[in-house]
Amino acid sequence: MTVSVGSIAPHVDRNRLVARLQDLVRTPSENPPGNEAEAARLVQGWCDELGLSTLTQEAEPNRPSVIARWKGEPGPTVCYCSHIDVVPAGDPALWGMDPFSAEISDGRMHGRGSSDAKGPIAAALEAVRALKDAGFEPRGTLELALVADEEAMGIKGAGYLVEKEILSPDIVIIGEPTSLKIVRAQRGPCWFRIITRGVAAHGSAPERGRSAIKHMAEIISHLEETVPDIEHPVLGGPSINVGTIRGGEKVNVVPASCIAEVDRRSLPGETRDSVIASIQAAVDLARERFPDIDATIELPFFGAPFEVREGSPVLAEIVAAASEALGREAEVVGFRGSSDARFFAEAGADVVVCGPGDISVAHTARESIELAELERGALAYAVAFARLLSKPN
Description:
- The protein is of the alpha/beta class.
- It has 10 helices and 16 strands.
């Protein structure tokens, strides 16, 4: 059957959609520490009600991810992946309300996770309900992967499921708050640790020692100039930021050690080796001034960038679905941050990121989602799932 916004809209129940999201927001799942178990039970129950085949997987005890499958005739596997964990709510006094109350005012639901990413999850569940009520039968398999740990870089959630080949889809939609813009490319998060070692001495005689902080300062002064001068059409350029620095023992002691943590965001085309080389280049430049620099570079975390080519048929189908739901052409953008998309892209799937909600209020005490956009998100997802899993004419 042909699915359009007009044919699916009568089957989207806004009251059911909003009630589900309220239940999810009222079920705290803060990470850290990683309290996803109750939220996982809630979404698994809904998937069971939808008649989907469900299972849970845990990378470690009490950190469940839920996988639900709707299997039809032979065809592609389309995975919708979003996360049930949320960042900590922080100081409740900053909210002006209980951050887990799911309070509704002025057409918006407020609370931690309302936008990132429980709103997208509720929209995807309603999309499946609407498709089933409309009599749609998929050609292929629709997977819902409602995962743990995304807010801590996803290693114990989507990363684990892809690594163990529990998930190996052909096409993936990542549910994140993008205001229903279509993300076709994402920068790669690369977190470095630079360590400099010096020689301690009394602060009154610094010439008798070697300052690890002075050497670190020189390295840091060269980091930006060694980032390659390249641009991506939707991502802009790569970036670098020194997030933390620790060194020294006491004000009157020449510091014998210093550690800086550096967040380097890479573009498609950059590799692990090339990104490491750009950091090493800053150390090499620093040695031109201080030949005795003793420095080590470590890479505790590397996330690859990804992109879907502009003319991709998968991208075109999802853009068309979102455009129909919005009543205007959906915007195609890049994502400067990170998401679980990278795991699927590295495994060879075509991946886009899209969902209702405003990323600018995520992780803040102003987090909320517009209910009208939440409903449009359910429509967009339903049409996208149907387009990707329809029988050929």
